[in-house]
Amino acid sequence: MASSATTPALPRLLKALIVSSVGVAASHLVLSDTLYLSFTAQASTALGAGGGYSSDQAFTSALVNTFLLMPLALWIGMRIAGERKVGPMVAVGTAGWVAAVGHGVDVLDSGPGAVLPPGSLALVVGAASLASLMRRSRA
After folding, report:
1. Global pTM?
2. Are 20 and 128 in contact (CB under 8 A)?
3. DSSP state, 52?
4. pLDDT at residue 1, as a whole number
5. What is the pLDDT of residue 59?
6. What is the pLDDT of residues 93-118, one digit of tens each?
7. 3-state SS string over the chain?
8. Which H helix or E strand runs over 81?
9. Is the dihedral of CA 101, 23, 93, 15 positive or negative?
10. For the chain, what percentages of helix, strand and coil (3-state, to nearest 5) are there?
């Protein structure tokens, strides 16, 4: 089996920056849209609507959906970009995303159209991109 050449650090880092930016944007979009369902369910309940999709269920599904989307977006994006050994990037990016959402969910919960703090988003993109440079060498 022939050994494939590894991508130099700078092109891999640029690919990782693009992929992690797209992953953060997609995950944020899913999070904010499904949190909007939570607001809608709260308003429906306040107006006396019957049982159905509760605001707690909508909030939980928003978190679960965004936490599942981030690792998939990072892994699929880097594989499409032709990169291998993306485990560290996926792990760091997902952990960073969970931390950023946990830190800023109160901002998002304050109303529709809110955005997570930009510093947190930039930190997730940067950390995931730098983690893409970690690769185990074959002995």
Report:
1. 0.81
2. yes
3. S
4. 40
5. 75
6. 999 999 999 888 777 766 667 788 89
7. CCCCCCCCHHHHHHHHHHHHHHHHHHHHHHHHHHHHHHHHHHHHHHCCCCCCCCHHHHHHHHHHHHHHHHHHHHHHHHHHCCCCCCHHHHHHHHHHHHHHHHHHHHHHHCCCCCCCCHHHHHHHHHHHHHHCCCCCCCC
8. none
9. negative
10. 75, 0, 25
